[in-house]
Write a structure and sequence with these properties.
The chain contains 20 helices and ten strands. It is of the alpha/beta class and about 575 residues long. Helix 3 runs antiparallel to helix 5, helix 5 runs antiparallel to helix 10 and helix 9 packs antiparallel against helix 10.
Length: about 575
């Protein structure tokens, strides 16, 4: 995407705020025009005093005009600052919402390929750059073009054409050099954003994993990773500072050269009576007024370079298509909660096509029954659940719920049909009740307590001083591993979804508590479908059906008694676990 296309994209961000930009631009025009009259009044005062016959009352009208002009400038400066900078903040807020909505739509595949720190930089550096280009950046460039044009016109019409050309000679050179430097800065700012994203990711990982780092005495290793990323970010930042400093130095030189030539040639014209002393002073004040637009040009170029780099990054993100989305004819209602799998073969995206995680799976998960899935680690159990829940899309015509292909069920409906508790527990930094009641009415306190009882969590909650209003801390830091898992089970139970999936969700819970939770679920979900995934065979003995996975295939299926009689993999796993339990006892 070239720079012109990026500017067009930027206009899309601002078009709904065009009225605010028009008001701000009109206020800026009034300010710039008004400021042009002040040097002229100063010149009139000096020429009046120079005659030697002036009395103080003769300069009062000029002083009054100057105060009127200053008041007008002050009032309208407030107007443009409020409208332009306020609009930039509103655009920043709108873009933040747009980014958040986009992140919410993107599928798991996207998050497996992108790091958290880099994604967070969109909300920090990139949005700040968007705010700067739509506010201060617009102002600085508009002020440079408008103020410079007006001042040069005023210089020519009120003083001397040749003096104006001499004084303004460096300005075109600055513009040419700035355009060349800007191209270099654009790529530098892109590299800087990526480097900052990498630094943010390492910082986030180091803070989140501080317990592991300390436990395994990996402080120096983590520090080295951070230092390398920090130094890379520093090196790129220094390069951008060098470019910014070069532009600033050029502007400073141009201003200094303009003052030098003005004093030299303007002083000569004054001594030769070509212009009056008052006209020379007024011209000098016009030149002083050019200082701000000249600096604004340099700052504006920096802001635009940063902003366009961020526009490019954000647009690239917004163009990412979610892998999981509703089909055109997707249905909202599904009658029945039975799950049918027909010839499911699946491999994860961006893996070797011959490396299948699931191979030709055929099975039925009956409605209103408890179905258990077990098998060795890495046998495909979690991948199977990922396909049922559309965390990743299965091939069409392989997974059905209530007789409907899940690819033809609206995602919102599918999410309401299925509640999943995974091994990876995530809790928000909120109260216990808020964490349990996500997605339901928080006012249902009885439902919260009942779900906690089913998950064998209520007793623990009563031990806390604030009970259900206890803040669990970031990612549930104040709770034990088993308490976290039971809270998330309560969170799933309270939704009362037709299908409940527990994917090894009690790995941190002792065997007796796990059995109690499963019995509670059996008692309270008699008319619903429940899928239990567990390595502990002792916990799934009472399931209506047990499915054994191995190397991505269904090896065995049946009740506990049937599978034991078959003497296959299930019996092997069961007897091995009995020996382990006996040893532990």
């Amino acid at each position: 995407m070239n720079r012109f296309q990026l500017f067009i994209k930027l206009l899309h961000y601002t078009k709904k705020h065009y009225i605010a930009y028009i008001i701000g631009l009109l206020a800026l025009i009034i300010i710039d025009v008004t400021e042009l009259f002040i040097p002229a009044q100063t010149g009139y005062i000096i020429d009046t005093i120079k005659t030697g016959n002036a009395v103080i009352s003769s300069v009062y009208p000029f002083l009054i005009k100057i105060m009127i002009f200053i008041t007008i400038v002050t009032l309208f400066r407030f107007v443009w600052r409020y409208t332009l900078f306020g609009t930039a903040r509103r655009i920043e807020t709108e873009m933040r919402k747009k980014l958040y909505d986009k992140f919410s739509d993107l599928s798991q595949e996207f998050y497996t390929k992108n790091k958290t720190g880099d994604l967070m930089s969109y909300f920090t550096n990139d949005l700040n750059a968007i705010r700067m280009i739509t506010g201060p950046g617009f102002l600085m460039i508009a002020d440079f073009v408008l103020m410079t044009s007006l001042i040069i016109f005023r210089m020519i019409t009120t003083t001397d054409l040749v003096l104006t050309l001499v004084a303004c000679f460096p300005l075109p050179l600055i513009s040419i050099v700035s355009m060349v430097i800007t191209k270099k800065m654009h790529s530098l700012y892109e590299d800087k954003q990526q480097a900052f994203g990498g630094l943010s990711d390492i910082t986030q990982e180091s803070i989140s994993g501080v317990r592991v780092i300390k436990s395994f005495i990996q402080y120096y290793g983590a520090q080295n990773r951070f230092n390398k990323s920090n130094e890379k970010n520093r090196d790129i930042t220094i390069k951008t500072i060098q470019m910014e400093a070069l532009i600033s130095a050029l502007v400073q030189f141009a201003i200094g050269f303009s003052f030098f030539t003005t004093l030299l040639y303007g002083g000569y014209l004054t001594t030769q009576k070509v212009i009056s002393l008052g006209e020379f002073v007024a011209f000098y004040e016009y030149l002083i007024l050019l200082i701000w637009p000249s600096f604004a040009l340099g700052w504006g170029i920096n802001i635009i370079s940063k902003g366009l780099s961020s526009v490019k990054r954000i647009e690239a993100l917004l163009d990412v298509k979610p892998a999981i989305f509703d089909t055109e004819n997707a249905v909202s209602e599904v009658h029945g909660n039975d799950v049918e799998i027909k010839g499911l073969t699946f491999s994860y995206p961006h893996t070797n096509d011959s490396s299948f995680s699931l191979k030709n799976i055929h099975l039925s998960i009956d409605k209103n029954k408890i179905t258990a899935i077990t098998g060795r680690t890495g046998s495909g159990k979690t991948t199977f659940i990922n396909c049922i829940t559309r965390t990743f899309n299965p091939p069409r015509g392989t997974v059905f719920i209530g007789g409907v292909d899940i690819l033809d069920i609206k995602l919102s409906s599918l999410r309401s049909i299925i509640s999943v508790v995974t091994q990876d527990v995530f809790l928000f930094s909120a109260t216990i009740s808020e964490n349990i009641a996500i997605g339901v009415n928080r006012g249902e306190n009885d439902a919260i307590v009942n779900a906690s009882k089913i998950a064998s969590f209520h007793g623990n909650v009563e031990e806390f001083t604030e009970q259900y209003e206890t803040i669990v801390g970031e990612r549930g830091v104040t709770l034990s591993g088993g308490q976290k898992q039971r809270l998330t089970i309560a969170r799933a139970i309270i939704r009362n979804s037709p299908i409940l999936i527990l994917d090894d969700a009690m790995s941190a819970v002792d065997i007796d508590t796990e059995k109690k939770i499963i019995n509670n679920i059996l008692e309270n979900r008699k008319n619903m479908t429940t899928i239990l995934i567990s390595h502990r065979i002792s916990s799934i003995i009472n399931a209506d059906k047990i499915i054994v996975f191995d190397e991505g295939e269904v090896k065995e299926s049946g009740t506990h008694a049937t599978l034991i009689r078959q003497g296959g993999l299930y019996k092997e796993l069961y007897e091995r676990q009995k020996i382990e339990e006996a040893i532990n006892d």
